[in-house]
């Protein structure tokens, strides 16, 4: 190119250059507007992770999710999966338990790294969280019952496998736990043994449960046995020897009996329903005897209350214990008061013959009051009154 040609080209380029620069700027702006107008916006919800040092973990509820707004070319934005975006709060510089605030940040992974341009923003932009030490405990499982078995049947036993689980979470929350509940077990209408799977539910999103998330519940169902309770029935002492008397403590008790509905409804406890066999007591003192119950055929005893009774035995004076059968003054002295009867007989023996009749009239009551035979007493009194 000659020098003159170059000059002409420069002249043409420089001619009206403000208009040309403005045209180029407008063109670039149109391109930018076109590209922006073609950007697609998409909002996804992702879980929030808290990055804390050592064994510190969140001890307060976190947002259920973080809404992340993605803006870029439609094809690229649509290719991003939820797993390619991670929302987190960085508390790695925190020392010790307590409340802390942190910005919610977004980390791109996978397909999100290949999309450009890509605008990313998160809601909420920051969070407040309380940190606590991590604790671990092994707790029993408990399955709540829902409804009832069929009429006329009972759930007699139940079991869970496994019977306990290991949980971990904030130390303050773990300290208040005594058991871990499963999902309810429906009992409605069941009349036979059964086994069902129940879910193991965490009591808090902050507490994690190790192992499988379910357990096996087994229930044993049997026909119901009608039961009746009897209370306040006297406890009789039977077979106590006649030379003893006794008292029992407690003096009354109760029983739980089983049988058919007809028999239970017709049963009426009478005297001697509850008793203790005292025939083995041979001497005064304190004795412990088992309590027994008399039941008609078809009824059975499920429980006694009390099962034993304390019996205090005392001596009982038998009639005629001081009887005497000798002659003369000795026979006349036999009676309820032997020490006074003998002097009376001696005094009557010293009376003159004229007082014999009076002596006989007085001797007869004395002889009747004695414990010996009536004839022997009378003979002894007469002999003492003769001259």
Describe the structure.
With 387 residues, the protein is of the alpha+beta class. It has 4 domains: 39-132, RNA Polymerase Alpha Subunit, Chain A, domain 2 (Beta Complex); 143-223, Beta Complex (RNA Polymerase Alpha Subunit, Chain A, domain 2), CATH 2.170.120; 227-315, RNA Polymerase Alpha Subunit, Chain A, domain 2; 328-385, no CATH class. 24% of the residues lie in helices and 40% in strands. The chain is built from 9 helices and 24 strands. Strands 2, 3, 5, 6, 8, 11, 12 and 15 form an 8-stranded mixed beta sheet that branches. The chain has a 5-stranded mixed beta sheet with strand order 22-20-17-19-23, with no helix packed on it. Strands 1-4-7 form a 3-stranded antiparallel beta sheet. Strand 5 (85-90) and strand 6 (98-108) form a beta hairpin. The longest helix is centred in the first third of the chain and has 21 residues, at 17-37. The chain is rod-shaped and about 160 Å long.
């Amino acid at each position: 190119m000659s020098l003159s040609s170059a000059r002409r080209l420069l002249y043409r380029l420089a001619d009206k250059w403000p208009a040309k620069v403005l045209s180029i700027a407008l063109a670039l702006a149109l391109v930018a507007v076109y590209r922006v107008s073609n950007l697609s916006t998409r909002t996804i919800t992702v879980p929030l992770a808290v990055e804390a040092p050592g064994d510190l973990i969140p001890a307060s509820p976190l947002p259920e999710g973080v809404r992340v707004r993605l803006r870029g070319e439609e094809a690229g934005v649509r290719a991003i999966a939820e797993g390619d975006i991670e929302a987190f709060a960085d508390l790695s510089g925190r020392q010790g338990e307590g409340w802390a605030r942190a910005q919610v940040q977004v980390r791109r992974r996978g397909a999100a790294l290949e999309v450009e341009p890509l605008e990313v923003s998160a809601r909420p932009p920051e969070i407040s969280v309380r940190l606590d030490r991590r604790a671990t405990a092994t707790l029993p499982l408990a399955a709540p019952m829902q409804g009832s078995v069929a009429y006329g049947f009972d759930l007699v036993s139940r079991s869970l496998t496994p019977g306990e689980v290991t949980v971990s979470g904030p130390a303050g929350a773990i300290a208040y736990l005594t058991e871990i509940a499963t999902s309810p077990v429906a009992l409605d209408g069941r009349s036979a043994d059964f086994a069902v799977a129940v879910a193991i539910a965490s009591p808090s999103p902050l507490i994690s449960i190790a192992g499988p998330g379910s357990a096996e519940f087994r229930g044993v169902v049997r026909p119901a046995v009608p039961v009746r309770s009897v209370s306040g029935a006297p406890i009789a002492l039977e077979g106590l020897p006649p030379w003893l008397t006794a008292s029992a403590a407690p003096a009354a008790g109760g029983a739980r009996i089983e049988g058919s509905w007809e028999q239970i409804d017709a049963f009426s406890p009478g005297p001697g329903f509850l008793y203790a066999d005292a025939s083995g007591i041979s001497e005064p003192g304190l004795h412990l005897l088992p309590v027994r119950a008399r039941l008609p055929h078809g009824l059975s005893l499920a429980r006694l209350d009390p099962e034993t009774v304390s019996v205090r035995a005392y001596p009982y004076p038998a009639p005629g214990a001081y009887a005497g059968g000798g002659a003369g003054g000795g026979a006349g002295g036999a009676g309820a008061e032997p020490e006074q009867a003998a002097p009376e007989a001696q005094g009557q023996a010293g009376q003159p013959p004229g007082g014999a009749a009076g002596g006989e009239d007085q001797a007869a009551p004395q002889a009747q009051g004695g414990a010996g035979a009536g004839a022997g007493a009378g003979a002894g009194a007469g002999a003492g009154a003769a001259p």
